[in-house]
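Before we proceed, please read the two lines closing this message. Tell me what the token row says about the fold.
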Amino acid sequence: MFKFFKRVSTVVSSELNSMLDKAEDPVKMLDQFMRDMSGDIREVEAAVAKQIANEKMLKRKANDANAMVEKRQKQAEQALEAGNEDLARRALQDKKDHEATAATLNESWERAKNDADVLRSKLDEMKKEYQQMELKKDSLKARAESAKTRTKMNRTMSSIGNDDSKHGFERMEEKVMRFEAEAETSEDMSRNSRTLDDEFKELNKNDVDDELAALKEKMNQK
């Protein structure tokens, strides 16, 4: 499991480019990698807890066996003081049995303790590496988002010359220019259709006479 964790943590950066090539979402995949690593850590934590519990159980049994050794030693002495040699002999025999048991249990406890220490060390290393990957993940996610944004902008800029909106805008611009040309043409045609009398009438037009006529009409109304 620990080797798997190490392998996953060392390929995250290379996986980022691979995911981009496969059109996978790097942000979601990085989060998934971190969830997988977190699950690995929880499994190791459970294994460490189990190993520690086994170590404590063996230590407790070894202590109990050593306590029985001391107890039988005192009982043998007590039996001799009381003149009961047979009882003292049986106490010493049981003492030897407990000594053998204690030796076996102590040996098992030492192995269990070493295993627990190794697992603790690996767990600490995994947690430290996980924290480093968590920080790196934030950086990779920011880079992925930036790359996606740049790609989108570049695609937009590369297609802007063929954009339908631009073509539509150009068509409307041409239409306005056509309207303006038609208006200028109609004005020219209107001027060309006037007769000589119309031009002389406009030439002889007197604004003062018009104003005087309007004033007379106004006074006649009063």
Helices lie at 2-21, 26-81, 85-159, 164-192, 196-203, 207-221.
